[in-house]
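Example S7 (structure tokens).
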């Protein structure tokens, strides 16, 4: 196992049916180890890699984006939120809390006073895999 403090890597994220859902695109990502910004199992895999190495990592829901949690579906007072009045069911909205943390959720229901938002990750309950390439590290 390496002890990299900074890693530069590229990735492609797939569903288990081989559907590509995300990638780092043309530019690799720079990651500072220990900041909690990437999935722990991905960080561990990168620590085991040599510069220039490619690896595929499979993740169960509990290792990746989590299990669906009903507690992450909230009914909120629409009048206390700063959201577009034209938002509709199925759209994603960003909600900022009092500490300026941003949370993305999917609108499930809207009425004249309330909005029901699902804050579960869109990939929760999904088995996924990453194709990784460690481009550089120090």
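Recovered sequence:
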């Amino acid at each position: 196992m390496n002890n990299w403090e900074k890693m530069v890597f590229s990735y492609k994220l797939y569903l288990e049916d081989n559907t590509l859902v995300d990638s780092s695109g043309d530019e690799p990502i720079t990651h500072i180890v220990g900041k909690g910004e990437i999935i722990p199992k991905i960080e561990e895999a990168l620590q085991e890699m040599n510069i220039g190495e490619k690896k595929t990592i499979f993740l169960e829901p509990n290792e990746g984006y989590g299990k669906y949690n009903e507690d992450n579906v909230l009914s909120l007072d629409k009048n206390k939120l700063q959201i577009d009045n034209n938002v509709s069911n199925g759209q994603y909205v960003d909600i900022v809390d009092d500490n300026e943390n941003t949370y993305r959720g999917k609108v499930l229901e809207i009425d004249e006073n309330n909005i029901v938002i699902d804050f579960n990750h869109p990939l929760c309950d999904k088995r996924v895999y990453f194709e990784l390439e460690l481009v550089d590290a120090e």
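Notes on this example. The first strand starts at residue 6 and ends at 15.
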